[in-house]
Amino acid sequence: MKPISATRLRAADATVTVVSNTASVPEWSRRYFGPWWNAFDVPAAGGCTGPVVTADVNPGRYAQLATGVSGAPHEDTVYAKALTRLATDEHGTIRAVAPSEELAYVSEPATGRLAVIGLDAEPVALAAARLARDVVRGQLLRSGWTLLHASAVVRGGKTVLTFGSKGAGKTTTALALAGLGWELLANDRVFVRPGANGTLKVLPWPSAAAIGLGLLDALDWFDVVRQRLRAGERLHPTQHPDVTNALLTGRREALWEPGGKRERKVQVFPDQFASWFNITLASGGHAEALLFPQIRPDATPAIAERPRTLSDADFMSGTTEDRYPDVFGLLQIDGGGTAEARATVAEQLAKLPHHSVHLGHNLQANAAFLDRLLRQ
């Protein structure tokens, strides 16, 4: 099948092109990455320079690859939460199949060429976007960027990075400030690289945003989402059906997985921040301050008595990326960048203002306090 549609993605000097025999697949990447990276149509048949992800709906080719991988010596791993069988030939080409997802992959790390083949357009589109992002990620990391586990907001070019472990309040802080007019640059991760004159450039890591039902209600977004869903619009397809049902039936309390260890959350597309919630997205900035929140239910927003500083846990690495290990050889580098880049970024971040704060569950009070603090 000949390609009929293509989208090129660009972030800083990194590029990748998604090509497909199904128009909705590159359209998905254009929608997913466009609000934060530069995404644009290119001719599908004109020949693509640089890294390419070919993403086709092709049942015959999928069946051929699935049979070939399963019948050859292979190893089993978990990729994107799915059992994935991997077979590598003498030329270094990696072929893989994820039977439960009905997806097959062919990766040539030496050339940067990658293919994903499946039976239906939506899973192919999700996989293509995920792989394209990692291709860009590898290029950025190899050129000196590093990846932080942080949210980020921007006002007047000033970027505030918010750090903390899971549940510390990175998303809450970013969205609260976005509601006061700050631009949202990143929800959970952000690329950083030293620039001229001691500056730190910041780029977004495009991803769907996971927002708990309680936080969605506190932001006054719950009814907006419910009305959109009732009108036939969709959130990100990785959202658990129980979350969708909770939204439609009006449940506003936190929804937990069996065992109560992990909250099931609403999964918001990047472009829905603007179209549903009137949040402006930023495509870059320069780091100016660091924020370390701790949320306590009954706390009054205030400066914390014990200040926190940056730690190794605030940097992403191959060991912290467990959902999408680099099984296709796309990064060719540690998942968070080189040790030298991390050390340089850490040294420059240490020179910026640090704000350790206690926040409560009153979102409006939190936002007003942080806005005043960061304007000083």
Give a verbal description of the structure.
This protein has 376 residues and is α+β, with helices and mostly antiparallel strands. The protein has 2 domains: 5-142, no CATH class; 146-208 and 269-375, Rossmann fold (3-Layer(aba) Sandwich), CATH 3.40.50. Helices cover 29% and strands 30% of the residues. It has 10 helices and 22 strands. The strands form 4 sheets. Strands 3-1-2-4-9-8-7-6-5 form a 9-stranded mixed sheet, sandwiched between helices. A hairpin with a 5-residue loop joins β6 and β7. α4 packs across α10 (363-375). The protein is globular. The chain starts with a strand and ends with a helix.
Helix content: 25-40%
Structural class: alpha+beta
Distance between the termini: 59 Å
**Mean pLDDT, all residues:** 92
CATH topology heading of the largest domain: Rossmann fold
Oligomerization:
single chain
Within the largest sheet, what's the order of strands? 3-1-2-4-9-8-7-6-5
Number of strands: 22
Q: Strand-residue fraction?
A: 25-35%
Q: From the 3D coordinates, which CATH architecture of the largest domain would you assign?
A: 3-Layer(aba) Sandwich
- Which spans have pLDDT < 50 for at least 5 consecutive residues? none
- Using the coordinates above, name the CATH class of the largest domain: Alpha Beta
Give a short account of the largest sheet: 9 strands, mixed
How big is the Rg?
21 Å
> What would you call the shape?
globular
Q: How many domains make up the 3D coordinates?
A: 2
Helix run count:
10
